[in-house]
Every structure is written in structure tokens, then in C-alpha cells.
From TrEMBL:
This is Bifunctional chorismate mutase/prephenate dehydratase. Keywords: Amino-acid biosynthesis, Aromatic amino acid biosynthesis, Coiled coil, Cytoplasm, Isomerase, Lyase, Multifunctional enzyme, Phenylalanine biosynthesis. It catalyses: chorismate = prephenate; prephenate + H(+) = 3-phenylpyruvate + CO2 + H2O. The lineage of its organism: Bacteria, Pseudomonadati, Pseudomonadota, Gammaproteobacteria, Nevskiales. GO terms for molecular function: chorismate mutase activity; prephenate dehydratase activity. Residues 280-357 form the ACT domain. It holds the Pfam family ACT. One of its GO terms (cellular component) is cytoplasm. PROSITE patterns: ACT, CHORISMATE_MUT_2, PREPHENATE_DEHYDR_1, PREPHENATE_DEHYDR_2, PREPHENATE_DEHYDR_3.
Amino acid sequence: MKPTTLPEARVRIDALDEQIQGLINERARVAEAIRDIKAKAGDVGDHYRPAREAEVLRKAMERNAGPISNETMAKLVREIMSACLALESPLTVAYLGPEGTYTQEAVYKHFGHAVEARAKRAIDEIFRDVDAGHTAYGVVPVENSIGGVVTNTLDELASATLTICGEVLLPVHHHLMAKVDRIDQIKVVFSHAQSLTQCRNWLHQSLPHATQAVVASNGAAAQQVAETGQGAAIASKAAAERYGLNVLASNIEDDPSNTTRFLIIGRKLSDPTGRDKTSLVFSAQKGAPGALFELLQPFAKAGINLTKLESRPSRRAAWDYNFYVDIDGHCEDAQIKPVLDEIRSRAALFRVLGSYPQAVI
């Protein structure tokens, strides 16, 4: 029955909060039971399952009747899942630090806030940390809708033994921040190279005489400005709050749809979900006319959608390239597996970098 007075509404809210809290704790007790069941079966590793979590989030969105939006509902369920998973086993995740980077935001969007997020100084450190088993997973930026690919990540993927097991799509809004409180006092702007590219027009119009300095991450830029008091940083609002900086201008990215895609790297392949993506790296036989066409043609013949194609120097020889391809579907799908086998037989180098659920939120 719908409340008709404010006191009635507050009583109803209190009763619902009590029910919700009880159900969350009941879910947590089931999570603890799952932990015990797995322990008896000898499953003592981390209990994060990308396919299962994607399934839970999609179901939450499908059964949502509003007025809360599907995305908001999924985010709420994500945090509950995160807290319950932490009861099974604490999850450690490496990210490009320091605190306040967009990569840290991507960690919390994908895993929830109940994980132990560990900042690393560079992308290659994240790969090494996960490969050595110091952290269970890593989160790395791979491409931006304006600035293009993150070449360091692609190069690391080519040689790493790790697997891509998830992706995160993060809308990115840049802010100019500094210790000073006036924009005309800024002589130098610090940020990641990608962020400077994404704000190129704004910087040209608003700070035409300021120099631009590239640093390892947006968080590092904010930290440097906070510690030295010199210049300004382009970073997230969270970074401004973390380092006590004044936001001099907001949403300075040239395209309001600016989005960065991040990859989750780990050591195990995700199970198929029906809505997956597969990432590949391969190289053609050098000097063979039409070699690249021969590698791409099987996708078209099988009706498989390519969502990405990038090339990078292979580092094996001059003018030799690796090709990075994303396709819709899972490498174990009946339609896709024979196509990958055919390409593998023709390629000089071929590796499945990972099959994983498409980003849900």
C-alpha cells in the first residue's frame, strides 16, 4: 500500500531497509557456504568467475522494473556481489597508479569496492605483478574512443602468458586542477599522453601559451601538482579530491562521448556466456602477397563480426607486424573454433589473448 503521509513513508522505508539488510546478510551467508563447499572440493584459488558475474548482472538488469535505471541497479548488485565475494576470498587487483587514476575507477566499476586495489607505476609492472602471482588480476587501459590504442598494453599482450578475462567501458570526463585558483596562472599542464590528446582543442583555445608535459598517469599528474604546487594537471574529479586540488575547469574533453576501454588480465579463460568477445594476435607470412587477406577472409566467410583491427611492430624484424583483432563470440563457440583453427594453420604467429564477457555496465 502506497504511503500517503511523510511519517507513513518513513516507517515504510525503515521496514524495507531492515528487509534489504537481512536479505543481503542472508546472501553473504550463502557465499560463505559456497566458500566452504569449494574448499572441501579442493578449490582454494580465487573465486571470481567472470562469466557467472556477467550472468548475475544481466539478470538484474533484465528483471528490473524501475524506477531505478538498469545501470544503477546493476551497480548496486555489483557492490553486493563484491562484498560477498570478499567473504569467500579477498581479491587483489593491480592497476595503473597512483590513487586517483581512471584505471582505479575501472577497477571499482568492474570488481566493486570490496577488492584490494594495488597501485603500480607502469603498465608492464601490472603484467609482471599478475604473472608472478602477487595479485590475482590486473586492469590495464587498451584504447580510447578519441585517442586510439594504448600501444604499451598491446605490446605487453603480445608477449605475456596471461589471459584477458574481462573488459570495462568507462566514460571519461577530464578536469583541469591546480593548487592555484585562477586558470591564467597556469604555465604548464601535466597529464598522460592520451588525456592531452583527448583535450587538444580545449587546451589550444583556453591555454594556448601553456606547455604540455607527459607523465605516467593522470593520478601521477595530480600527485605531482599537489606536491610541488607547480602547474596544473588533467585528471579525474576523484584525483582532485584525493590530492586536495582546485578544479579550475570541468569536462574539458573535446568529445563528450569520450570513453576508455580497459581489459581485465588474469590467468584463466572465462567460460562462454552467449554474449562474449575474443581477442587475438597473429602475424602473416612475411613477403607473401595477400597474406593478411588470407588470414581475415575466414572471418567473413563464417559471418563472424570483427570489432577491432590494429597493427603493431612485432619487434622480431624490421617492417614485420603483429595484428590485433577483436571478434564477437567465444573461442569455444562451434561457429568460431574451426575458423580460428584455419587461421592458426596459415599464420606465422597466432595466439588467442582471451575470450570474455562483453562489458555489461
